[in-house]
Amino acid sequence: MLKIDYSLFIQIANFLFLLILLNIILYRPIRSILIRRKKEISSIEEIAQDLRIKADKYSEDFEENLSDIKKKGLKEKGDFKNQGMEEEREMLKHTRSSVEEKTHKTRIEIKDKVSQVRQSLKTELETFSQELAEKILGRDI
Predict the structure, then answer these.
(1) pTM, entire model
(2) Which residues, 6+ apart, have CB-to-CB distance to 130 below 8 Å?
(3) Based on C-alpha coordinates, what's the Rg of the chain?
(4) SS3 category, 139
């Protein structure tokens, strides 16, 4: 059975001494490490949250810039296409006018040559007809 004597006080003192010693050596450092770790984790979580917010903002900006760039690219593509079509029309117009001019010059040259040939044929025809009439009649005309 339990006797209350001086050894009980020694045991209580021993227990309290051990409790104080463990608190100083073991529990305080562990608690301080846990508190420090909790602070570091919370600061890291805050940094991560800030980085997530920045990443979302940059992603939105990127998407917005990308859509603006796509719109600008499509506009420039349309402008280049229209410019090319306009240049094509101008080239075709120039080519048509050049072809029409050459055709007109060629027709004039052909008419001149035809009139020259007619003129030479007319003179030759008169000569041939006179020679033919002389041969048929057998005398000079």
Answers:
(1) 0.44
(2) 141
(3) 58
(4) coil
